[in-house]
Each structure stands twice: as structure tokens, then as C-alpha cells.
Amino acid sequence: MATTVQATPKTAAIPVYAVWGAAAGLVGGIGMGIWMSVSRPVMDTAMITMVAGLLGSTNAFAGWLIHLTIATFAGITFGVVLGQFAQRLAPAIVLGLAYGAVW
Question: Which end of the chain is less packed: N or C, by CB atoms within 10 Å?
Fold first, then answer.
């Protein structure tokens, strides 16, 4: 028995927005991760090392993996939820900044 799936243009575009959101999340996450690697707010401990502490580690590489995973998830969520509104540069920047501030 074969089944067919009908996709509307709106539902078919969600994965595309998710991919672009994931890419944007990684780019933003790399930038923020660099800043977190050089920032040392507490007793000469880098912020990225503090992120690693979420899993009980003190390894900066673990901190990077955790941070980039969270950034990718945030980007995918942005793409799925707000991707249809961020198709032009100005609205994408405004929505991205507001979304990032909420995160």
C-alpha cells in the first residue's frame, strides 16, 4: 500500500528555514564563543569553561561543543518560528537581534 503526502509551499519551506537558521546560529555562536573564550569574569576563568561546567567538565573543548549545540538549536528554532518573516535583510536583522536578546 502506497501513501502520498501533500505538502503546501508553507510547510515545504520550514526545513529550508531551519537549515538557514542553523547556519546563522552557528555563525553567531562562533562569534559569541570567541568572546566567551577570551572573557574572564571570575578568578581568571574563561566563560567558555563555565559553560563546560554545565556537564561537570572544565575542558574548553567541551564548553565549545555545548555552546555550539545550544546556538544551533536556537538558530533552528528561529528559522522554524520566524523564518518566514525574515526573508529580507532589515527584518531579519531586527528579528535576529530581538530573538538573540531574548536568549
Answer: N
